Amino acid sequence: MTMRTVKLKTWLLIALLALGTTVSFTSCSSSNELSKEQVEIKSIADKVWAFSQAHPDGFTLDVRTMTEPTNGIAVSYVDTQNSHSRDQLDKVVEHALNHDGFVGGWYNSEDGLYYFDSTRLFPEDSLKEAIQFGKDNSQHSVFILSTFTDIPLDGKVAEIEERGTVIFGTTGDYRPLSFCEPETGEYWGFGIEMAQEIADRLGVGWEFVKTSWPTLTADVLADPQRFDLAIGGITITDARRETMLMSDGYLANGKTILCRVSDEDRFQSLEDIDQPEVRVMVNPGGLNEKFANENLTHATIIVHPKNEEIPTLIAEGVADIMITEITEAPYYVQTDSRLAAPLLDKPFTHGEIGVLMQKGQDDLLEMVNNYISQMKADGTLRRLHQKYGLVYGYE
To answer: Which domains occur in the chain, in start order?
Structure first.
């Protein structure tokens, strides 16, 4: 046997041993068996699937702890878009475990499939960032967990977030709800602070645009819009709701009167007021004028263009009665000793003041209603009432 033959046999033996080792390794790691990581993913996916069957209305789940977060803004990743039923749930869970750890699900009644997405959770004061993430991931909406609010990415809220400012229309002539100081142009009042609170909770700045009672409806319905929301002493009525959207109430209201202190015993009812010799002054275009025309058919009705000037004119004797609201009358009684509100505890009407906006802004309406509800629950609304000396009516 030559040395060359020995070397050849030696190399053949090494090759056969190497081949045997490879075959042996392959047989120990069969493709039919799952890795520990895959087993864990499958186990979690089974739990998520079982959870989904008990929650057909949808859910957001932390798959690391199998608990539902109650706060945050849930936004789906595009990577797991259109994943439905149990067969595709493993990849959703795997993506979630490699990213934020949340899975969202919802049942589509149209096709009978349960859809799942790997989800990212944003803090609720990061709505702008959540909306941008939704746009980057080809989503239609983002979902606020604490209020169960769906925010469409092509809606009014997204527009305001993109702009960075919410624009409020307000009359600026209605102390202590909305007043614009003529010298400085600065707005103040209960309604103004409500507007600023709404803007703060949206995470944007605010801007005020002047409107008036005669032009309020036209300004709200203007195209293009002059402002996003109207605020500051606007009573909720069925007539307004026929053509516009109105929020839930945040301030109890009702019609009453201002008169001179010397006349407070004289005016104790509508009948006392509805006399030919009684001069009743109202601002134009609003519910005060409407109330006077409908209920005071014998009295002399005087329409004065500037609402904020009427109390002084009553005090000076230019007219006898101002038709106003229980929200406005106390301020003038406190700031002008010549004035009285003898029927303050017996208003002629009962209603609420809310926020007015264009139809088609349902996402913004839902957000505003959520904020009003939060303000009632966390004490913010009560503190504002106390600050302005208003009666709190939401126990």
So the answer is: 36-152 (no CATH), 159-249+353-388 (3.40.190.10), 255-349 (3.40.190.10)
Q: Say whether pLDDT at 24 is over 90.
A: no
Q: Which of 196, 177, 169 is nearest to 327 (CA)?
A: 177
Whole-angstrom distance, CA of residue 72 vs CA of residue 125: 9
pLDDT tier, 257 (very low <50, low <70, confident <90, very high otherwise):
very high
E strands, 40-128, are 59-62, 73-76, 83-84, 102-108, 113-122
Q: What angle do CA 315, 213, 238 make, to 5 degrees?
A: 115
The C-alpha atoms of residue 127 and residue 121 are separated, in whole angstroms, by 11
3-state DSSP assignment of residue 127 = helix
pLDDT at 11: 38
pLDDT per residue over 46-67, tens digit each?
A: 999 999 999 989 999 999 999 9
Which pLDDT belongs to residue 33?
61
Kindly report the number of other CB atoms within 10 A of residue 88's CB atom: 15
Whether the upstream peptide bond of residue 214 has omega within 30° of 0, thus cis, is: no
